[in-house]
Structures are given as C-alpha cells and as structure tokens.
Specification:
The protein has a 5-stranded mixed sheet with strand order 7-10-11-15-14. Strands 13-16-19-8-20 form a 5-stranded parallel sheet. A 3-stranded antiparallel sheet has the order 1-2-3, with no helix packed on it. The chain has 3 domains: 77 residues, Winged helix-like DNA-binding domain superfamily/Winged helix DNA-binding domain (Arc Repressor Mutant, subunit A); 165 residues, Rossmann fold (3-Layer(aba) Sandwich); 76 residues. It has 443 residues and is an alpha/beta fold.
C-alpha cells in the first residue's frame, strides 16, 4: 500500500494545525503514523545522543552490519550509515568489508571500546533510539484531540456485562466521554472494580507511544509489554514509518494495595543506568485505576496530595537522579475505587478536583435476581424461580444485605460442589444450601 507524506496531520477542517514539536506524519491506508526522520536533525535529538547509542551497540557485539545496527536502534538505514561513517572517521569503529549494497560490516576499535565503556557508565541503555519529551507530549495531545467521541452506545456496550442503575451508567459515561476523573465508592462487592475496568472499553482508537524518551543524556523507558498491547497494525517492515514509535491499544493500568509513593516516581536502576516511567505515565492516553483506595501501604492523604496538581493542570513533575525536575503530561482517565468512607480517606480539596463521583450501593432485589439469572445462563445452569424466591427469603430472614457479587459466588460454589462429587452441575435446594454455608459460614 502506497504511503504519502505530509508535513503535518490534517485537522478535521482540512487545515494543518500548528503544533510545536509534532512529528511529521505519514499516511498509510487510513492510519496516520510518525514519519521516518529524513535526516539526523529530523529526529528531534542531539546528533551526539544517536552516535553514542550506536557506539554502545557496537560495544555489545563481536561484529555487526549497518542493517543490524539500524534494526537494533530503530533508526533509518541511511542515517545509521552516516553515523557509522562518522565513527569510522573518528577511529571508533573499523570497516571489515561489504556484505551488500551500502551494507558494511564493522567491528569496534580499541579506542571505541574505551569510549563506549565511559558512555555505559553514564547510561547502560542500548535499544530503540528515544524521541524527545516535546515530541511525545505533542503527539499525545494531538492524538487525544482526534480520538473518536465516546457515545452512550459505546458506554452501554462497554458495561453490558453489569447490572447497574441507569444513573450509574450515565455518570460513568459522562466521565469517560469528558476525559475527567471518576471516584467510585460504596460497599464492597457491588461492582466498583468491574465498572472501573469495563468502562475503559468505551475508549476507542489506538495510540502511538515511543519505546523511550530522551531527556538530555537520560533515557526513560515508556513502552512496556506487560501493560501495553501492541496493535495488529504492522509497521516493522515499513521504512516510511519512524520505528521509534509503537502503535498500541489505549492502555488500562490497575494498581492496588501494593502501591507506595515511589510507585509514582521515575524508577532508576543503578545496574542498567536508565529510568522506567511510572505506571500512571504509561497509562497516558488510556485509563489508570487505583483500586481499593485507602488500603495501600501509604497514608491516603499523602497519596491524594500527590494527585492534586496533575488533576488540576493535566501535568505532572518527575525528578531525575540529578535532582532535575521535568514536566510531563498527565493525560489519562483517573479512576479511584474504594469501599471506605470518603469523609475519612478523602480530602475535600481533592474531591473538588475529581471530575465525577459515583456511589454504587447494594443492588435491589430485582437487580440481584437479574444478576443471578444472567450468571446462571452464562454457566449453562437453570435457576428454578422457586429457588430464587427461597434465596431472597433467606437473605431477609438473616437480615443480610444483598451484594452484587454474591450471585456469581454462590453459583461458582455450586459448581465446586458438583465437580467434587463427580456429578452434573445442578442448582437445587441441597447444593444451594451447602454453597450458602460454605460462602457465609453458617447453616
């Protein structure tokens, strides 16, 4: 498929927007992507950063070719060729011979080895070349402005597996469509986490993110296979595209009780001497869910204070080992879920900055029955209406509150019972009573 270049991506009105530092784009089918840099200045980086990265790569292999270096650092072949010619002139690498048209074989020299050793003491990063922080910020802002609008249809489709009050779906839809934050609270077991996870599915579109970002001599790794799902859009062999960028599905990152204050800062590894971006940064362009808020290993008010500036100004500040602070975009939907009393764990100043608040209370009897019937159908079991009535009466006789998670949990325990006995799954009075006893701990 033929790709055509343009200096700037078109706006909906057909006019090119003036966005400083926005990379040039290439059109491939119906996808706009960062265009491969035409020269070293076009990378947005200091030439020395790229040359040093190439030399460090040369240090790690016995021999290498121009093509191998280009693939390793994700820089176009002609630009790598230019840098290797410079390193040859400076006696950092030596030419061993030619292996194809313009494709030479090299080996690092002793002088280059000494230079690379010093470079590796500063930064041990060897991999895809970085993009500038400015280019990343501009690309993120441009993409957010051009994502499809979230409609009520998208929201209803995203949360179709849940039985929720109409107002809850409406509030969640308003939060996701506006890009504002959402604070979900209420008793445990009523779908706060499930809603937080599923509402993300209403965010359509895919996102270009860099493998890493360069801030002077510091490297910050952004793309993470644990949290970013690469798109099916193949770019590996397309020379028109800037291979420093990866196309991913809009991310959803969930954190819980394992969170500490350090989780929201740059993680520097002394062994490899480069940085890992914090998880909320990796969630840019998608959603970031803090689950079970108030149960982390850090005081909740201390955690809230960390978010006040990012929520109000959509920017965050991260600190390098040198003490230098860098400003980065804070552009994801922040979701916070808790079953604790908001008046105890939340600060009024923070609550004012939350975009939307949603209380998820206990389900009504009708909602409970609907959840029960849905889950039973999904598990291919039949629920006799008399059993449902009997179950509701038992809740009332024990003065037990209904919870949205309990229909699923009870049916799963009926499955356990039947599987343990080696019998077909059947929900009857006996199996349901045993499931109740095993779940609630009483007869």
């Amino acid at each position: 498929m033929k790709a055509t270049r343009q200096s700037k991506p078109p706006s909906p009105a057909g006019e090119a927007p003036e966005i400083p530092h926005l990379p040039r784009m290439v059109q491939l089918g119906n996808v706009l992507a960062p265009a491969a840099p035409a020269d070293l200045d076009d990378t947005g980086l200091d030439r020395g950063v790229l040359v040093d990265l190439t030399l460090k790569y040369a240090f790690t292999v016995p021999q290498f070719t121009t093509e191998q270096a280009a693939r390793r650092i994700h820089v176009p072949f002609p630009l790598v060729q230019e840098m290797l010619e410079q390193l040859t002139t400076e006696h950092m690498v030596e030419v061993l011979g030619q292996v194809g048209p313009f494709n030479m074989r090299y080996i690092i020299s002793q002088r280059g080895r000494e230079r690379a050793g010093r470079l590796l003491e500063v930064s041990g990063y060897i991999g895809p070349a970085p993009v500038s922080l400015e280019a990343y910020t501009a690309m993120l802002e441009w993409q957010l402005a051009h994502f499809p609008k979230v409609s009520p249809k998208h929201v209803l489709g995203a949360v179709a597996d849940l039985v929720l009050p109409t107002h809850a779906v409406e509030v969640a839809g308003l939060a996701i469509s506006s890009g504002r934050s959402l604070f979900i609270f209420g008793p445990s077991g009523n779908g706060k986490t499930s809603l937080g996870r599923l509402i993300h599915n209403a965010q359509h579109g895919e996102l270009w993110i860099p493998h890493c970002i360069g801030v002077e001599s510091s490297i910050i790794r952004v793309f993470d296979e644990h949290y970013h799902e690469a798109s099916a859009f193949a770019v590996d062999q397309n020379r028109a595209l800037d291979q420093r960028w990866v196309r991913v599905r809009r991310p959803l990152i969930v954190v819980g009780g394992e969170v500490t204050m350090d989780s929201f800062e740059l993680a520097y590894s002394p062994s490899v001497r480069y940085y890992e971006a914090p998880l909320h940064f990796k969630a840019n362009g998608g959603a970031f869910l803090i689950d079970d808020f108030g149960r982390e290993r850090v005081d909740p008010h201390q955690l809230l204070n960390r978010w006040i500036t990012p929520l109000e100004h959509q920017i965050d500040y991260l600190t390098l080992q040198t003490g230098q602070k860098i400003q980065v975009p804070f552009r994801q939907m922040l979701l916070i879920a808790t079953n604790l009393n908001p008046d105890i764990v939340m600060d009024p100043a923070f609550l004012r900055r939350m975009g939307y608040r949603l209380y998820l209370g206990n389900p009504t009897q009708e909602q409970y029955q609907q959840i029960l019937e849905r889950y039973a159908a999904r598990k291919s079991v039949t629920m006799d209406p008399k059993l449902v009535t009997r179950l509701m009466e038992r809740y009332q006789s024990e003065e037990r509150e209904l919870r949205a998670c309990e229909p699923r949990d009870l049916i799963e325990r009926v499955h356990d019972i039947c599987r343990y006995r080696g019998k077909p799954v059947e929900v009857n009075e006996e199996t349901l009573d045993l499931a109740w006893m095993g779940y609630f701990g009483n007869k």
